[in-house]
Amino acid sequence: MRGGLQRWKRGAGSGGVGRAIDYAVKGTCDAHLHLSTGSDALERYSSATDASVTRFVVTDGAIAADELSAGALRVWLTGHDPVTGEKRGSQRLSADADLLLDATLNHPKSYSIAALLHPELASEFESLQNRLRDQILTTWLNELNARRGHGGLIREDITRIEVVELDHRRSRALDPHAHRHLWLNVKVLGADGKWSNVDSRVAMKLHTLINAEGDLAARTDPQWLASLARHGFTLDDDGEVAELASVVRPLSRRSAQIEVNRARLIAEWSAEHDGTSPSIRVLTQIDRRAWAMSRPNKPAHLDELSWEATVRGELASLDARLAVDRAPVPLVSTPLHALDLDLLAHAAVVDADERSTRTGGRFSSFDLRAGATRALARSGVVAPRDALIATIDAIAEKAHGTCVRLMTDADLPGQVKAFMATETVRLKIHLAGSLDALASPGRSLLPQELRRSAAFPEDVDQLDPSQLAAAGAIAGAGGLVTVTGPAGAGKTTMLRVAFAALRSQHRQMLVVAPTRKAASVASREVGAEASSLHALLADHGYRWTVDAAGAEAWTRLSVGESDRDTGAIYAGPSRFVLRRGDRIVVDEAGMVDLQTEAALVGLAIEQQVGVAMVGDPCQALPVGHAGAMASAVRCATASVELGTVHRFSDPEYAALTLRLREPRDRDDALTIAGELLERGHVQRASGAEEARAAMVAAYFEWHARGKRVALVSGTNSEADAINDAIQQRRVDEGELDSTVLALGMGEQRLLVGDTVQTRRNDPRTGVENRAQWVVLGIRDDRITLVSASDSGEMRGVSREYAFEHVQLAYASTVHGIQGETTDAAVVGPDVDAAGLYVGLTRGRHHNTAITVARTDEEATAQLGATMMRGTTELTLQDAIRAAHAELRRAAREREVQASAPWITPSASPSHGGRPL
Length: 916
Known about the structure:
- It contains 30 helices and 35 strands.
- The protein is of the alpha/beta class.
């Protein structure tokens, strides 16, 4: 199952239904956030002929259902009884008041195709979704709570929740794609008989367990799997119907023609109606026409039977075997008694640990139970959900027992992230010791020494004192050097000077970076040999491996050992031979994860070479566990902070960004936010939709001047929404031709003239991960790209590569934009501290932060809070303090007192953990 959760909020001018914060789960059940308008959604669902509106009333041990009309649904959404109109509890009228939480159940497309091919499978698929829905409703009732009292500090158990289900069979392009929405009303009945609001913080953190339940249902449900087997179908390792996976993509590609038809029909309708935009109902009609026009033997009138017949015909044309019945296959199941519970518990911890990188390696009981559920889902077991409860409990209990518990509170809410994987604890301790060992003493070069060795003495003259100190430290003898500095501090010239000084000493400088894109930039600008960090480690025998539980780690080949992946005998390093005294410079070091840093430091100690970490821990964090750069700063022989910003045309703004990078405290953050507002770098929006519209407008404002603008959002889904909006407006205004297109990631349409980003290194074509391009041409088998920053750099990629690894890039997240310099930048309201800082330092001439606020005071407060959000937890003590802070924010029972000081825990049968 791919599902998700959305928090709907009240908004002005929408009849009580406002913006929604959505996190839906796709692919491998990873959550993402998305903002949408509630009133538009209501119109869409109420006007769709294939949507049913059923209300489920869930009480202890019982689920009852009835039907709600569109009018009753609106009453229900605003916190009133849909039958009597009675108000339920106190009404919160602020723009931030939650209205409902929307969980999207979104199964693999192959399930919907299977259901379309066979009536029995259609019935079983519906039953599968019904059983999953009931399990989710029960989980919500059992695990969620209401918040009460001053500041919401009192926890109240729930005895009744109400959920509306919306059921859909098709995607917007009218391809088979069954999915459901479960709308959980925030008004819940407490154990004391009073209506109050559900604790949405808990609900948002519970979503990982809800998603895991979806995986479990899809992979272990005996009725569903048996029905698949009777029709000759099996599930592959990704959870797709293996025999149907080959037709999913070709069927989706028909969407490209649908999009062409849709764009033309919208343009025609607008031209006939004085340029106005079509309503939701008109768009629904246009969608159906666009779908029918692209299909061979299209029906004259689209109805249920003709739609099914048409799609079945398409499937048969894609794979003739789908038109005939398949022979049954045996249903293979692993017996519950044969499971290795220790291995599954290890897998549960690995799952929780991999999802904890943004919280310093901390995870919660919810996360561990979700990991246990996902581990069991992939074990090969086939059994009813009730029969799996004891096994999930046993796996979760074993998983708890192998973790380190960061606090001893007896009443620890399930959402509080108070556990850490033992291996992550060991990694942090090991890396600190290795960095200390690497940091051997040694003197830095003096400015006059740098000048004597410089290829161009004027390079040295351009350096400010901090840059001179950094170049001297890198070219010096210290074992571990760190150079940190703000965005736009001018590291390129500094590195060129250090490179010349090292070369004059007959010492090699090898520049490595977390990505090939960053390494290539460093190689061009500095002149030194450059590589991705992973390529350097691979050349020295390191291999990224995965164990039976899914844990990823570096291993090391010995000379003469056979490589398991290639079968070749490892003969030692060939591309990057290191000599004693050489210097490895890690560029963009703030994006290096702890495991990779540990491998690099081990290699450096072995080869007796120095390491210089050059980066900024205040910018984008790594994909894995963070803190490598900041830990290196603590241990370094020489640590230099670059103090001057050279990027911005306004020197006063440059000085302000230095303070923005690392506020001293909350009061300082509020002062900085006030100065940003006063200087015109803050734009207020009334809601998420207006904020998105402002970002779209900013693109066209700067685009009209022939300038590049960076649009930075906090989530991939929000970036996708902005990208789609900009592309559609460019089509509407005649800048882009929608009749010639290719499909990119997530079936995005790519048009000639679009700004895009490649998301995977491809040595055959020379494109790199996160490089930005403009689509120059689209042919049958080739898409031509030109660099967004260098019109002389052109590449060609296949349509296959584009479908897997190219996405629109008018807007991107902080990871996609870090390292870029543009004319202007606009940052959305959903970023963290790193996203705000990186976003507000991309533009040479102007940078703007958009915040959802009604007043300047509210905008200042929100920006200040953002600056203080996302602090990296380096040490175990950092993690302990963060866990206690999270516990203090959680709703508690009335009798629970403040938590006791942390001590090293001893193992306990359930929620205990190993001692450090």
